[in-house]
Design a protein that fits this description.
With 127 residues, the protein is of the alpha+beta class. The chain folds into two domains: 56 residues, SH3 type barrels (Roll), CATH 2.30.30; 47 residues, no CATH class. Helices cover 16% and strands 34% of the residues. It contains one helix and eight strands, in the order E-E-E-E-E-E-E-E-H. The strands form two sheets. Strands 4-3-2-1-5 form a five-stranded antiparallel sheet, with no helix packed on it. A three-stranded antiparallel sheet has the order 6-7-8, covered by helices on one side. Strand 2 and strand 3 form a beta hairpin.
Amino acid sequence: MLKFNVGDRVKYVGSNGYYNPKRLGKFGVVRDRFDDISVNITSESGDVWCGVYDANLELVKSAEDKSPIRTVTRREIVPGQYGYIEISDVNNEGVSLWLPRNQRWSSEKLREAAYVLNQLAEVLEDE
């Protein structure tokens, strides 16, 4: 019985007594089964290797690893207090935020608020 399935990515390691030294360390994809103990492979260079014993191969990536699902990373705005700015609501139209009134704004406080507001603007532009 074969260790590999059609579509598996394999590496030629030549561990059995009979092997081709020119193929050592090269990669390919199993194209079909040759018999009960060997497979046919398409190498990365496009060559077809017929009747390669499965003992001479090592699995690199299983064909079963393919999936229609992917992981996506995205940025989103999270309500909360960020320095002097409070974000209270986020929706498709934008964000609701609160800035303290009657506050003396130093250059440091203004820069901190500007930094938070710029981050919000970047995320809203990406949506």
